[in-house]
Design a protein that fits this description.
By secondary structure, the protein is α+β, with helices and mostly antiparallel strands. The protein contains three helices and three strands.
């Protein structure tokens, strides 16, 4: 059974939109197709648990490249703070 190259897989999961946005930007800057699947329940502003899922997804065919990029790149605390303070 062969997998369709258009299948998307989770590469990163967070409880916050801004962390997912930083990972999204890092992957997009490397020309890796990326989407954010936001399953957070914004009515309760949860940042952990089942209702706080924000997933970054990539095509299955790009998973290894994206995973390697994320393992060699580090997002700094300053970047997280700046992203968190932005008005979305």
């Amino acid at each position: 059974m062969s997998k369709d190259k258009s299948d998307w897989v989770e590469i990163f999961r967070s409880g916050t939109d801004y962390e997912a946005a930083l990972v999204y930007a890092l992957l997009r800057d490397a020309d890796i197709p990326t989407v954010i699947l936001n399953q957070r329940d914004h009515a309760f502003n949860l940042t952990h648990g089942y209702l706080a899922k924000v997933k970054v997804m990539v095509p299955e065919s790009m998973y290894e490249i994206a995973s390697e990029l994320l393992s060699t790149s580090s997002i700094t605390d300053d970047e997280l703070t700046q992203e968190a303070l932005k008005k979305h």
